[in-house]
Structures are given as C-alpha cells and as structure tokens.
Amino acid sequence: MxxxxxxxxxxxxxxxxxxxxxxxxxxxxxxxxxxVEPLEGEPWRLQAEIIPKESKAYLTQNxxxxxxxxxxxxxxxxxxxxxxxxxxDVLLTNYRxxxxxxxxxxxxxxxxxxxxxxxAENTAFGKExxxxxxxxxxxxxxxxxxxxxxNPNIQNNLxxxxxxxxxxxMSGLALAWGITAALYHRERTGEGQAVNTSLMxxxxxxxxxxxxxxxxxxxxRDRRLATVTAxxxxxxxxxxxxxxxxxxxxxxxxxxxxxxxxTSDGYVVVGCLGPGPRARFREAxxxxxxxxxxxxxxxDLKEVAVGLVANCEEKFLxxxxxxxxAFLDARDVAVGPLKFIEEMWTDAQVAANGFLExxxxxxxxxxxGPSPIVRMSGTPTRIQRAxxxxxxxxxxxxxxxxxxxxxxxxxxxxxxxN
Length: 418
Fold this sequence. Notes:
- The structure is a single chain.
- It is built from 17 helices and 15 strands.
- It is of the alpha/beta class.
- The chain folds into three domains: 9-205 and 355-413, Rossmann fold, CATH 3.40.50.10540; 214-252, no CATH class; 254-342, formyl-coa transferase, domain 3, CATH 3.30.1540.
- A six-stranded parallel β-sheet has the order 5-2-1-6-7-10, sandwiched between helices.
- The radius of gyration is 26 Å and the shape is globular.
- The mean pLDDT is 94.
C-alpha cells in the first residue's frame, strides 16, 4: 500500500520550523518533498550544530525530504528555479511579504509557469496591515497575540512564553492541512490556488478564550482591557497586571479539577472537565464544592477557592503516585503520572504503540524519533528517510527536472548549486 499523497511533488523553499514542518508532514503521507536551501545551508541547519552543517532542530523539522542547495539570488539560477516550479505540484514558502517576489517564487510568478500549482505560504503576521513586512518568529507572535500572557508563569518578573513554539508547530500542521485540501480541490476541478497561514493567526486560534459571544463577553473584555491599560499607564509590573486580571476572572480561582498535584513520592496530573467527571473527583476525594451548591454567594469565592486548593493538595500528599493512579483509575477519574520527555524513550505505552521509530541518516547513522502523528489503514503514513545532508540530492533532482548530468555538474562548478 502507498501513502495518500504518493506521486505529489513539493518544492519546499522554507526555513526554521513552521514551513519545514509542513513539508515533513507531507512526506509522511507519501509526497516527494524537495527542500531547497542556500549554498551555506538554512539557519536551522546551522543552529547548535552537532557536526558541521547538521543540528538536531534541522533533523526534526526536515525528516523525509530530499535536499538541494541552490543560490536563488544568483540570476543564473533562474532556469533551475523555473524548471523546479514546473516539476512541482506544490510550492511551499515562508518568507516575509515581498521576498518571494524578489526571488521569483511568489504565487503570480509560479502560476505563470504552472497554472494549477498550489502555492502554500506561511508569514509571521499576515500579508496585509502595518506589521506585514516585519521580521517575526514564534516568540514574537506569542507576545503580540496574547498567547504569552495567557501563560500565568512568571520568571524574574517577566512573562514566560509557551516553550514548544506552539505558533510555529500549529502553523506547520495547519499549512499541511490546507495543502491536502487544496490538492483534493485540484483533483476535482483541475484548479490550483494559494494557501496561506500566519503565526499570529495561529496563536490567536490556539486561545480558546479569544472566541467570544458578543452579548456575554464584550463588557467583561472591555473591563479587563481598561484594567490592563491603566496598569500599564502607571508602570505596574507584570505580576501586578496578572493578579488584577485574574481577580476579574473568578472562574480561574480554586482550580482543583484540572492541574498537577504533588504526591508523597512524585507528581500526578488530573483532568476533570464537565459536571460528571468533577462529581466523581469530589466523591473520590470526599469533599464538597460550595460553588456548585444552590445559593452560593460569589463574595465568598476567594475564601472557598483557597480552602479547596489547600484541602486537595494536602490529600494528594498522603499517597504515592502509583497509589493515586490506581485509586483514581478505579473511580473513572482521568489521571496520569507527570513525566519528562527523556522518560518516553523507555515508556511501555510508547513502545506498545510503536510511537518511536528508527531510520538512517547519511552522516549520523541510526536515528530514533516519533512516528507520524496520523495513522491511516488504507494509505499508510511512514517515515521516508531522515533529513537530507546539505545538497545531498542536488544532481538527482536536477536531472529529474530535465537537466543533464553534465549541466548539473556545470551548475555546481559555477557556484549556483552545491
């Protein structure tokens, strides 16, 4: 059996995380993805190198692709660029607006060569507006979108961004998702199209609280905005601003149902969403929650919330992690041990499901990493190969695009390719 995207050809002109991840995800569904890098290698390849021109970050985001090194800025590369666009079904980019036009890999240029091409683009802040031309990364999108300040953690009196680059990662997933839909549309109609995502929009979409019902939420949001504006104006530090906002959101007080707890020998995480699971949790820990009782006075919220948290935290300290898991499992309460990523490599659940797989890298030898995150019975996903060494497939790809081996060698000698 072959992957769902077997035979689809993708020209991947992206760097860092979001765009490269999208391309890597497409390889797992069978697409032939060719990564184009500058002659010196893309920045992520050169970030914290483990051997020259190879980094763990690059290995992760570019698994499954073939790779060529090509100097798009050299005018002599134009015939190669245009041949590769003609070869491709999908052109993937993630430059700032205006840069693709300079390099001749923008949507209008691409569809003059390949009218039905699918042009997939990720930007930092979108293609319009006052910030469209600014340089941006995940941390900037988090900060500008409210995602950073949705994280209550403060370190050295500074807000802390979410650590796993969520805007980048989810933009990569969204871009791959959009590409597959565009391919389906083209299969039905013959039409190509432009698909675009942005880190800022993804960061907004990740925040469940950003979805509002006007009749219920506008007034409360305006009150919080006025509080934040006033606090900034008087020079309040981030801890003060967080505290003032939290005081205006009583639903966050006394969270005992969806959080980690310290046990006698470690930590567990508990998740109870909805009336049923919360009732089972209260029954298991033998406590009542006055907030769910008729006639509760909101004026008592702070005192009640503090008491609930202290009560539950004290009870969890009485038993071990294993004992709590067995106890809560038996009562149909969602619970699990708190682990670190290093523990996953020997985790029994990971092993039973084959969530980690081995594959070979040309320079580094055996690698092991997560299997494709989507599994399909009829069109199986798979890891095609490790990430390419710099320029590993240049000659091979150029010959597929219509050049002779002699021409490919000449391009290398002229410093156009590597």
